[in-house]
Amino acid sequence: MTEMVNVDIQRIMEMIPHRYPFLLIDKVVDITIDESAVGIKNVTMNEPQFTGHFPQQPIMPGVLIIESMAQTAAILVVQTLGEDAEGKLVYFMSIDNARFRKPVVPGDVMHIHVKKKQSRGPVWKFESEVRVNDQVVAEATIAAMIRGN
Q: With a threshold of 0.85, does the pTM exceed it?
């Protein structure tokens, strides 16, 4: 049987070490253990990156979109591995085929879809895409390694 789980912001902060201003997901929904998850990021004008990227026309930086994919994937990894994995770091190993299809701006709600492609030991690989209003705005294949504290 596949377990479906939703994770709120308080639980996210127990599971991964990221904090403001670098905690880039607000909740994770529709987690299917060892398979997939959907992160939610509410993009707001009061976030620090918008003071410089770009003040006259704020756009969510692509690297932060990729980071939101990684944080969503980290929640899936920790949820799959259980309590022993909580608080451990998940390091990027690679980012492949990253594409940015449309700018993400304040007021948008990012739905960050991650799907496990494979896992071997501590190394996990994911297909990821971000949607705003059901339209794909970014996609990438990411690989990461979970490490002890």
A: yes
What is the distance, to the nearest Å, from the Cα of residue 50 to the centroid of all Cα atoms in its chain? Answer: 19
Per-residue pLDDT reduced to its tens digit, 64-90 = 999 999 999 999 999 999 988 888 888
Picking from 147, 77, 60, 89, the residue whose alpha carbon sits closest to that of residue 114 is 77
Gap between the Cα atoms of 38 and 44, Å rounded: 19
Q: Residue 118's closest CA among 73, 71, 68?
A: 73
**In sequence order, what DSSP letters do the residues of 2-61 get, joined into one string?**
PPEEEE-HHHHHHHS---TTS---SEEEEEETTTEEEEEEE--TTSGGGGTS-TTS----
Torsions phi, psi for 79 (to 5 deg): -65, -35
Q: Which residues are marked as active site? A: 53
99 is written with which tokens? 């594409």
